[in-house]
Amino acid sequence: MEDSNWIYMLESMQSIRYFSRVMIQRATKEYQMPAEHLELLSRLAVSNEKMTPMTLSKLMKVNKTIISRIIDKLNNIGYLIKTKDENDKRSYFVSITELGEEQLKNIYKHYLGPIYELRRKLGEKDFSQLMACIEEANVKMNDHVEGI
């Protein structure tokens, strides 16, 4: 071990685990959605442009066949709609429905609720400092992992 004060390091690890457990919401059945489905809906919700399956495929770096399957599933649930492209009859645009937006909002409220609470309790300055330290640690640990 690099540090002879292993008890301090053990306590630090326990604090990090506790913090993570408190801050990260577990998925419940009501809020479970595959990450790619969530990303696709999120991209539709924030986009000001019409989106085609090809556009989504490129943005998400996911095979167009997979995007088409996701679109079909979300369309069947009622979270998005497909509109034919009048200029190209073989293509269509995808847009999020009110139901899709509501589900997306509920999922993000569920997962982000503890983070908003942390920011409220810490205050903007301390929250920003915490996030800066976490981001710096992520970069350094990523560099460490890539060096192995």
UniProtKB/TrEMBL annotation:
PANTHER family with a match to the protein in the record: TRANSCRIPTIONAL REGULATOR, MARR, TRANSCRIPTIONAL REPRESSOR OF EMRAB OPERON
Protein name as catalogued: MarR family winged helix-turn-helix transcriptional regulator
A Pfam family this chain is assigned to = HTH_27
Alphabetically list the UniProt keywords. DNA-binding, Transcription, Transcription regulation
- Mind telling me which SMART domains this protein's record contains? HTH_MARR
KW Transcription (keyword) present: yes
Domain HTH marR-type residues, every copy: 1-139
Is Transcription a UniProt keyword of this protein?
A: yes
